[in-house]
Amino acid sequence: MNQLKIPYISTSDFNTPDTLLHAMQQLERQQIAINPWPEFTSDTRADFFIAHNTQAILLKYQVEERYLIANESTNGNIHNDSCVEFFIAFNDDSSYYNLEFNCLGATKIGYGSERGGRELLPAAAIGKMSFASRIHSGLFRQEEGFSWEIVLVIPNDIFIHHDIRSFDLLKARGNFYKCGDGLPQPHFLTWNRITGGAPDFHRTDCFGALEFGPRTA
After folding, report:
1. Domains and CATH numbers, the chain
2. Taking residues 119-139, what's their average pLDDT?
3. Phi, psi angles (nearest 5°) of residue 17
4. Could you tell me which residue ranges the Carbohydrate-binding domain spans (predicted)?
5. Does the model's pTM come out above 0.85?
6. How many CA atoms lie within 13 A of 202 on its CB side?
């Protein structure tokens, strides 16, 4: 099982998500490189960088892929687009949040204890997030493709079923994903390994350990 310590960073000098795009590049890069379902072959590459400022999770993804699709809107079928995902369960809770983002920042957030019957967060709550994204087209491994990045500021009050006053020293479980169910080259990549069955990201038994670091002066 992967274990990830999420560092604290001060964001007092970064007033917008766009300014965080470069700042977060200094953090440790984490790969979303496991393909648990090899029947879905892909040359997609995905990495993420993560930190917190006690009041928000700061999450940046970098992606290279052959195809790019962004058709969905808030709480739509984001997984069919060029999509990155972050699932998190706080402490020992059996319920968890699934946060899904396409390359343009369209977002879906659900909550529940299993794949079915998930409660979608209201659009007003999702609107509290901020993000910045960039998309580049050009040569990709000697073929046409795309590279894109997105940085997300996810405030603590997004997690409406928990009273999170601070992420300082908080413990959680989770996983990070890259997918594109509706792309010409469907793929399902994970940070922590998932075993067996058909593609399914809602496997809390395959979550890795997340530990938020202490605030520093």
Report:
1. 3-212 (2.60.40.1190)
2. 92
3. -55, -35
4. 23-212
5. yes
6. 15
Cβ contacts of 30 within 8 Å, gap of 6 or more: 4, 47, 48, 49, 50, 176, 191
pLDDT band at 139 (very low <50, low <70, confident <90, very high): low
Q: Are 146 and 185 in contact (CB under 8 A)?
A: no
pLDDT at 198: 93
CA distance 131 to 110: 18
Instruction: Specify whether the CB–CB gap between 173 and 208 falls below 8 A.
Output: yes
Higher pLDDT pick, 138 / 199:
199
Question: Tokens for 117?
Answer: 């019957």
Whole-angstrom distance, CA of residue 116 vs CA of residue 93: 17
